[in-house]
Design a protein that fits this description.
Layout lengths: L17 H18 L31 E7 L5 E6 L2 E3 L2 H12 L12 E6 L5 H12 E3 L5 E3 L3 E4 L8
Parallel strand pairs: 1-4, 4-7
Antiparallel strand pairs: 1-2, 2-3, 5-6
Length: 164
């Protein structure tokens, strides 16, 4: 490294310029503060984690068997059939009413906390119908504007190809 001045090295001390380094650090700090986006967490999923490993034993007598909802796909992924335990339904509102009659609105034994719905959907069914079925069985908005929960446990059967 060549220093200014005479060609001789006199053993002088090399000083670092701290002001430009501090300026760069403050510019980076300002950049990161200005670009930081604070967002609220998305959704409220009511995830209930188990407290401990499940104990082996006899299942409860009050626990309902899974409610089976079958949805078949027609041409272009449209909904061709909606069934609740082999009974054909005409709409998702009717599905909600039938599930409400089976499990009720209140949680507790045999209520919303114990009920489970199994969705059995064709492979080609459009996703919007699956979401509408989940919405229909999970709850509804009551007359007072409050959300009434019916079923929180929803599972999916393996998908079916059309015609199988």
């Amino acid at each position: 490294m060549k220093f200014r001045g005479s060609g001789k090295h006199t053993g002088g001390k090399v000083e670092l310029m701290m002001t430009p380094m501090i300026d760069v650090v403050f510019q980076l700090l300002t950049f990161f503060i200005m670009t930081f986006k604070i967002t609220a967490p998305e959704g409220d999923f009511f995830i209930k984690m188990p407290q401990a490993a499940p104990s082996a034993g006899v299942p409860s007598d009050v626990q309902l068997p899974p409610i089976k909802v079958r949805m078949t796909a027609g041409a272009g992924g449209e909904l061709a059939g909606l069934f609740l335990a082999e009974r054909r339904l005409s709409s998702f509102a009717e599905l909600r009413d039938q599930v409400r009659a089976l499990v009720g609105d209140a949680s507790g034994p045999g209520g919303a906390s114990d009920a489970e719905v199994e969705l059995d959907c064709d492979y080609d069914l459009r996703y919007e119908y699956v979401i509408r079925a989940i919405t229909a069985v999970s709850g509804y908005i009551g007359p007072d504007g409050q959300i009434v929960r019916m079923v929180e446990k929803i599972k999916f059967a393996p998908p079916h190809k059309e015609g199988s």
